[in-house]
Each structure stands twice: as structure tokens, then as C-alpha cells.
Amino acid sequence: MIICTDSNRPNVEPYVLADEDRAEIEHHVHHYDDSRAASIDALKVIQRRHGWVPDGAIQPVADLLGISAPDLEGVATFYSLIFRRPVGRNVIKVCDSIACHLNDFEVVQDAIIKHINVGLGETTADDRYTLIPICCLGTCDKAPAIMINDDTHTNLTPEQIPALLEKYV
Amino acid sequence: MTTLSNEQLANLGEIKPLTYRIVDNKPVVDINEYEALDGYLSVRKAIPAMSPADVQAAVKDANLRGRGGAGFPAGIKWGLIPMGPDAGAKYLVCNADEMEPGTFKDRLLMECLPHQLVEGMIVAAYAIQAKRAYIFLRGEYVLAAKHLNEAIEQANAKGYLGENILGSGWSLDMHVHTGAGRYICGEETALINSLEGRRANPRAKPPFPQIAGLWGRPTIVNNVETLSNLPHIINRGADWFKGLSQGKSPDGGTKIYGASGKVKNPGLWELPIGTTAREIIYEHAGGMRDGLELKAWLPGGASTDFLTPEHLDLAMDFDTIMKAGSRMGTGLVMVVDHTQSMVSAVRNLEQFFARESCGWCTPCRDGLPWSVKMLLAIERGEGKPEYLDILQQLTRQLGPGKTFCAHAPGAMEPLQSALKYFRSEFEQGIAAPATAAANA
């Protein structure tokens, strides 16, 4: 049996939890009757700082929540919007669900791929963009839709894509 | 801008209780503005004058059926919650993880009328005597999160939330929990696991959440639209609520219907429950775009069976659409026009379900990618002759009772109905024997 501890992960960079992140995670814990429930909130705090959740952050955050590192890793790797690999400065999320399919989202997706020259799940060499697919964004009356970071863009045409993407540096 | 007099607004409230206060999609986030529109009236009316049992009885009488898609009566769900002084900690959870493809109604209710949901949740939490209430909101709904947090803060300041609400001795703490993706979080027990900070795998039922839910305690999970109906049931009564359907359905209330796909005017409309899909698509959504004909439609989300033009005059309620072989689901219709391929549509749907499977149950984890592989081949015209039989078998092997939750059975609904109504389109994707042999 392999016991997953830090000694089994020799490449993990040492990580020091920032004081304000620690305070924010502790604040989230108060909203729940069990500190584990703040796992997703805590991972989002880390992700807001780095854009993703670095390997080294798992152990100290797990310690703070009073759960094991593999437990927290299990949560971190389950959720599609917690990133366990570095992502670009701007994360483009393309809705590929059925309502956008019925409104020809593929041509919009193709225009994005053409403009940034990387495929789904990839990041541009200059770390400017990461492109991922996403579950129905709940704007089906204005399909096709994408999100860039926290902004939702709707009723898109391929022609609009270059100018839209250039707004995100 | 549309300007309505107070009297006109009140009249509209009689027939469109959920949305009459939303004018030109302008959010009402300020609590004083909301109170001026009869906001929090139901809380002042119910607490403490009505007992929790009285509130439960009113909702049971109204026969409010769950608007998340399953249509289970909210009053009966609540009735399973242990009551009394020894019942211990209980929780109310609002399922605001709106991710059913084609569904955008809860977004409107939360972005534009966050207080209505908060008010409904106070009523529900009082009825079951919960001590804490959570709104499980999908992380992408950034504006809804902002407005709900503002609404909760203002409701706390006014004494509708917090300690000893309106002198009743009952206290309630409310919190918005934002998710981090994964469609499966909308499944009631997976949602509870996610809220506990675990992987969103579904739980075995029984025990049902009403007995052992969040942290093992009795828990009620209700949808945003369901909860948003509660203030109006308390204010105007069960008989008024039942009459809202105007004889179009044995069920009571309105329903927020919608239409998307290539219709002229996609959108949302609050209408009597039991309104026909024909009225939704051809009157409210303005019909199909020029040159397009309706070929098929999904009544309420990705996990409902396709129906055809011959079903357009059925009442859009839970029982009628169920009898026609589908489900009303969320009631937001998606239309497929005559130029679109059913094989491609089903392939898109199964790709979605395969990606969103949590992987807990083997039929779902392995069966869905298998279906995608075959559908992609059929789409390219390279399907093998046995694929149609295998797909048909999968609809049974992934059907109800084979997995912990309804994800796989839901995924099979559009597949089985497309095979039933549009089999020839699938047959056209089977390669001719010579090509099949060459590819073998």
C-alpha cells in the first residue's frame, strides 16, 4: 500500500499560506457545522491568488481544515473549476451544451481556436489564454455563450471573437 | 421603459406572482423597494402568528410540486421531516445549481428578485424549524451571488434573519455557498456531499435527506422556483394558488416556461401551469425562424425525452408530459429544426452526460463514453450494423435502477426517444457493408 504523504511527493515546492488567505479560509469555516465543508471555498481562495492550486498548497490547507491532504486533493481534482495545473491569465469557458449546439456554437469555438491558436484544455505559450469547455451557462435564450473569467458574453458570432478576446490582456 | 401603476402591478401579481415585480429585467435588490412591493409580507404574516404546522399545511393544500424537474410535492417532502422539541438540528438547502442544459429560469429569479427567494426560504425554514439555510449556487452565477449576498445582509439588518426572528424565539442563519462546477451537484444527495466539502458522488437512498441529509441531520432540498412560490401561497392562500393554472392542469400555480433553439424570440414567460408547448413556441417565442420547421423538441432539459410536433398540444405539466413518454423537467423547451441532425444533437447530449458523470457507478462511467463513441461513428457515416442494437441495449442497461442516481437514466431519455422517433437518421449513419468491411 502506498501512503500518500509529502515524502512521496518529492517535487512539491514548499508553500507558505499567506496570512490573509489563512484568515479568509478561517472565516469561511464559520459558515458551516464542519470545517471540511469549507474545502471548496478554501481552494478558491488559493486559486484566486495564483490562478490555480499549486501542489504545495494542498497540505497546509488540509491541515487548516483538519482533513488529510489526499482527501482535499480528491475534492480539488473532482471539480472542473478548480484548476490543478497552471492556467493562463484569462480562462475562456465555451458553453458546448445542447442549446448552444442548436445555435451553432461550433463556429464560435472554431473562431476562438483560430485566434489563440490552441485547442480545448490548452494554454497559449504566452500564458494569456486557457480554453476549456463548460456546462450550459444558463443563457440559452442568448446562445451561443461563453465566459471569460467572470464575464459572460452572449449572442456571439465568429466575427466578434478577435475584438472580444483582444480586450483580455 | 414600461411604467405600471401600483394597481396594475397588484393585478399582475394575481396572475404572475413570481415575475410581476420584474420590470424590463431590472433587478430589485434594495430591501425597502422590495418591501414597498409587498416584500416580506409572508414572513410578517406567518411568524409568529402561524405555527410551523400551519405553514406546512398551507403548502400541502396548495399542492406545490417541485419546480426543479421531478415534480415531487413540496408539502409531502416537508411532511417527512421530524418535528418537535427533540428533533435536533435541521437544515434547509436551496438547490440553485442551475446546470440542466437549456435552463435559465433560476438565474432570472436570483439576479432580479433575490429577496423573493430569501423570503421563501425563511418561510420554508420556519415550517421545518431549520436552524441554518444554505443556497447552493453554481459558481458561474456571479451576479446572482452578489445580489443574494446583499439581500441576505439587508434581511439580517431588518430582523427577518438572525436571532429571535420577529420575536418568535426562532433563529435562522442563511448563507450562499458557491460551487466549482460539475452538473452532478444538482442531484440532491450529490449536492449534500458537495456542500459537506466532499466529491459530489450521489448517496444511496434510503435514507432520504429528510431523515439523514447534511451532516447526517434532517434536510430539505428545494429548487429556487419552488421556494420563490412560497411567499405567495402564504399571502394569497392555497385556493388562489390552485386557480392560477386556469383549468389548464390539475396542478396549481404558474410555471416559468421558456424556449431556446432557433425560435424567433427565445426567452422566459411565467404562464399558467399546463400551458401547451404550441402556445409557448408559437405565441410567446414567435414561432420558428424563417424557413425553419420544427422537427423535435425537448420539454425541459437535456435529460428529457424528445417529443415531436404531434405532441405540441399537450398540457405542459408533470403528469401529461410523463404520459406522453417524456418528462416536463424544468419546463424550458428546446427546439430542433428540420435542418439539424438528430444524431448530432444526441451525440452532443451524450458527450455532455459522459463528461459530467461523476464516475461512481460503472454503467454510467463506462456506458456513456461507449455511447458517444458509437454516435460519433454514426455521425461520420461509419457506424457498424450492430450499433443501433447496442445503443438500444444501453438505454436499458443505463436505465432506472441500475445506478445510484438519475444521471445515467436521464442521459438515456433523449437517446431512447431519438431512436424511437428518428431511427432512419441513425440508420443512414450505418456504413454500407463494403465500407464497413474495408474499415474492419
Any overview of this molecule?
The complex is a heterodimer of chains A (169) and B (440). Chain A is α+β, with helices and mostly antiparallel strands and 169 residues long. Chain A folds into 2 domains: 6-78, Arc Repressor Mutant, subunit A (Orthogonal Bundle), CATH 1.10.10; 90-166, Glutaredoxin. Helix content of chain A is 37%, strand content 12%. Chain A contains 7 helices and 5 strands, in the order H-H-H-H-E-H-H-E-E-E-E-H. In chain A, a hairpin with a 5-residue loop joins strand 2 (122-123) and strand 3 (129-134). In chain A, helix 1 packs antiparallel against helix 2 (39-50) and helix 3 packs across helix 4. Chain A starts with 18 loop residues before the first helix and ends with a helix. The model of chain A has no long low-confidence stretch (mean pLDDT 94). Chain B folds into 3 domains: 6-243, Rossmann fold (3-Layer(aba) Sandwich), CATH 3.40.50.11540; 254-337, Ubiquitin-like (UB roll) (Roll), CATH 3.10.20.600; 342-439, Up-down Bundle (de novo design (two linked rop proteins)). In chain B, 43% of the residues lie in helices and 11% in strands. Chain B contains 19 helices and 8 strands. A 4-stranded parallel β-sheet of chain B has the order 3-2-1-4, sandwiched between helices. In chain B, a hairpin with a 5-residue loop joins strand 5 and strand 6 (267-272). The mean pLDDT of chain B is 96. At the A-B interface, helix 2, helix 4 and helix 5 of A face strand 3, strand 5, strand 8 and helix 14 of B.
